Structures are given as structure tokens and as C-alpha cells.
Amino acid sequence: MPFKAGLELTELQNMTVPEDDNISNDSNDFTEVENGQINSKFISDRESRRSLTNSHLEKKKCDEYIPGTTSLGMSVFNLSNAIMGSGILGLAFALANTGILLFLLLLVSVTLLSIYSIYLLLVCSKETGCMVYEKLGEQVFGTPGKMIVFGSTSLQNVGAMLSYLFIVKNELPSAIKFLMGKEESFSAWYVDGRILVVTVTFGIILPLCLLKNLGYLGYTSGFSLSCMVFFLIVVIYKKFQISCYELGLNATSPILSNSSEHEHMCKPKYVIFNSKTVYALPTIAFAFVCHPSVLPIYSELKDRSQKKMQLVSNISFFAMFVMYFMTAIFGYLTFYDNVQSDLLHKYQSKGDILILTVRLAVIVAVILTVPVLFFTVRSSLFELARKTKFDLCRHVLVTFVLLVIINLLVIFIPTMKDIFGVVGVTSANMLIFILPSSLYLKITHQDGAKLTQRIWASLFLALGIMFSLVSIPLVIYDWVQSGGSTEGH
């Protein structure tokens, strides 16, 4: 944020330098103010004085330095928790519509680009002293910046909540049918996914969301990550237990009844282009978004430095890359072209205790994670409206209205790929590509020494804009063509 060049003497006298690892408090570096001039060993001209004073004022307006206490290993675990989410369930569908080689290229590209965007974010944080994304946006672009960051992070969190409740809508009916000893084709009003998701929302999630603070719910992210690791193990195990040929024999399609056609469908494909290929990149982007959590994790890192936090992000993203690719490839090699946008839903229980266990574990994990995301969205909304003082009536009303809106979206959205597609091309694109590069370019716009870095950041920004301009029309076109109701190719 630019400041006026003509600073009054009283402003300089009242200015305090925050205790930050990036700012020295050595008396030789910054001594005192006399007769309107700064007496400093290293400051000789007016431009340098203005630059230092502006830097101090900017940091004063942002977060004060508080030493972190979290180890590097725990920070890696926390960031991995932030990255991991429901996006993992849609990656096999993305692979089935791109082919193995194209999917691997996209996955590697998004992983590397996400790491680079974290680098830009850390540089911006170091330059401004901000440890919260919204504050960083406000510091650099003023109120519009704060609004854009708030909108992007809130849309990302709402998208995550929608995908989690969609899992409940898809998976809970199958689990109940298994426990009742009914076939998958059994239908009754009490096993309708739409009714069950509303029941779970207002019977379990609403009371948790009405709590004044998170409490023990803050620890559910570790449980959620454990459930996803368990899911990956089951996916790998089932690949060697389920035969693609048996899936073909059980199918009723006349195409599958032809052995030569079926044999062709059970062969892996390496490069594919079809109407659903457009969902691959948004789904991968959705799976890797963790940017709102990066700065809070950075602020808690023990002996923090930009280099150390970059190491944390590199390890976390590499670990998630391996986990994502293994889930996608083994899920695809189990069902091939028949895979759905919710991979877990493709596994039929039919007496399989292992599938029931992983299904119940994932359901419990997502039910407990929804309130955590909801707290973030609601608190950001109150902060934006400057209504930070707790008011019970407002607290209950906002909670109820938001959950009603989210449930209506879950009921009427036909498939998870639509959630991944919309959120991927909007908020995920903003948080990964557009916002970090824009913030960096704004902060360094007068720094001639960083010309090369600014060129790379500009190309990164252009890539994000191009991603939006290409993906959004294609997603809309697919909706128009398919009516938003098909999973197939």
C-alpha cells in the first residue's frame, strides 16, 4: 500500500519498530530523530529514509512478530492435512479422461506451479510482515484486495464443504443398505441420499457449527488424513482383487457383452481427449489448494525462515503428489473407462467388510471436517462485516442460513465433477495462480533488481488468466451438451 512521502515529525517520533527477524533493532542502524532528520549510520539520502520508514509503517500495520513453536515435521504434517481433501476421489476420473501420460504431465505441472506460488506467497509475507492471507491482500491492494482474497478463500472452503456433503449423499445410503442386508438396488425414502444429507446436516453438523469455538474439532484433520491413507491402501488392494473382465461380465451393456470390445476397454490408455477432459485440470488444481493455510502454518513454524517454510511446502507437496498419483492410477486400472467422479462410490459393498469400513471411516471424517471449514467461512464473513463481537441470535441465524444454502446446492448439483470443475477454474485458480503473482508484482513493482523474477511472475499470472479464459467456457459448454447429469464419456 503506498504511503505519502511527506511524513510529519510526530509520526516518526511515535513510530515503533516491531521485533521481527527481518528488522534489526541495533542502535547503530536506527538511532533517533533530531530536527526532522533520521540520524543513521547507513541512511544517507531522502529516498532511503522514506523507504525504511514506509517499510516500518507497513510492518506495524500488519502482524507483530511472535516466535513459532511447531517443529518442521509437524508443520509438514499440518500442511499435508491442508492439501489433502475430497479432490483425491476425483483424480481417477480425471485420469480416465486424459490418459496416463497426459494426466501425469498435468499432475507434475500443477505440483511444481503450486510450489512456485507458495514461494511467491512467502516472499510477499516477508516483505509486508503479514501472516494472514486476507491481511496480505488488504496491505497490498487495500479493501478490494481483502474482498478478493476473502471471496476466493470462502468459495474454496464452500466448495470443499459441498464435496464433503456430496460424499455423505453418495456413500451413506450404500453403507445403510449393507448394514440392513439389502441389495444396492433397494430403494426407500430413508435410504435416499438427499434426505440423508439433510438429516446429517441438521442432526449432527448444525449442533457442532453452533459451538462458540472449535475445541476438539481442530484435531479432526489428522483423522481425515488417516482415513484418506486407509482409502489409498484399499484402492491398491482392490486393484489386485477386482478383475476388469468380471466387471464386464456383470455389466448389462451390449457393448460390454462383446469380448473384443471389452478387451479393448480393459487396456490402459495413455492420451485421451473428450468432452470430460476439461475437468482434469480444475480437479487437480482443486486437490492441491492449501494456500489460505500456508501463512498460519508459517507463523507457527519454530525458528521460521522463508527457506525453512519452502522446505516444508516442498516435502508436503511431493508426499501428496505420490499419494494422489497412486490413488488415481490404481483406481483407473481397476475400473478403466467405467470410473466415476467419486471413486469411492464405484466400489460396491455386497458383503465386503473392508469397503464398508473405509466408507464409514471417510463418512465420519468428512462429517467432522465440515464444521471446521464452516467456522472459517463464518468467522471471515463476520470479520468482513466488522461484527466480531459474539451475538447469539446473529450466530444462529447465519449458521442456519448458510447450511440451508449449502444443502440446496448439494441436492441439486448432479455430480462431484461439477463441484471440482467450478471451484477449480475459479477459486483454486485465483489462490494458486492469480493472487500470489499479482501480490508479488505489486510489492516489487519498484524493485529493479528483481526484474527476472518479475518476468517469471508475470508469465505465471498470464498462465492463470489463460487457464480461466479456456476452462470456464469449456466447462459451461459441457454442461449445455450433457445437461449436467452424465458421468460417462
From TrEMBL:
<dbReference type="InterPro" id="IPR013057">
    <property type="entry name" value="AA_transpt_TM"/>
</dbReference>
<feature type="transmembrane region" description="Helical">
    <location>
        <begin position="216"/>
        <end position="237"/>
    </location>
</feature>
<dbReference type="GO" id="GO:0005886">
    <property type="term" value="C:plasma membrane"/>
</dbReference>
<protein>
    <submittedName>
        <fullName>Solute carrier family 38 member 1</fullName>
    </submittedName>
</protein>
<feature type="transmembrane region" description="Helical">
    <location>
        <begin position="145"/>
        <end position="167"/>
    </location>
</feature>
<keyword id="KW-0812">Transmembrane</keyword>
<feature type="transmembrane region" description="Helical">
    <location>
        <begin position="419"/>
        <end position="443"/>
    </location>
</feature>
<keyword id="KW-1133">Transmembrane helix</keyword>
<feature type="transmembrane region" description="Helical">
    <location>
        <begin position="187"/>
        <end position="209"/>
    </location>
</feature>
<dbReference type="GO" id="GO:0015186">
    <property type="term" value="F:L-glutamine transmembrane transporter activity"/>
</dbReference>
<feature type="transmembrane region" description="Helical">
    <location>
        <begin position="311"/>
        <end position="333"/>
    </location>
</feature>
<feature type="transmembrane region" description="Helical">
    <location>
        <begin position="76"/>
        <end position="96"/>
    </location>
</feature>
<dbReference type="Pfam" id="PF01490">
    <property type="entry name" value="Aa_trans"/>
</dbReference>
<feature type="transmembrane region" description="Helical">
    <location>
        <begin position="353"/>
        <end position="375"/>
    </location>
</feature>
<feature type="transmembrane region" description="Helical">
    <location>
        <begin position="278"/>
        <end position="299"/>
    </location>
</feature>
<keyword id="KW-0472">Membrane</keyword>
<feature type="domain" description="Amino acid transporter transmembrane">
    <location>
        <begin position="69"/>
        <end position="473"/>
    </location>
</feature>
<feature type="transmembrane region" description="Helical">
    <location>
        <begin position="455"/>
        <end position="477"/>
    </location>
</feature>
<feature type="transmembrane region" description="Helical">
    <location>
        <begin position="396"/>
        <end position="413"/>
    </location>
</feature>
<feature type="transmembrane region" description="Helical">
    <location>
        <begin position="102"/>
        <end position="124"/>
    </location>
</feature>
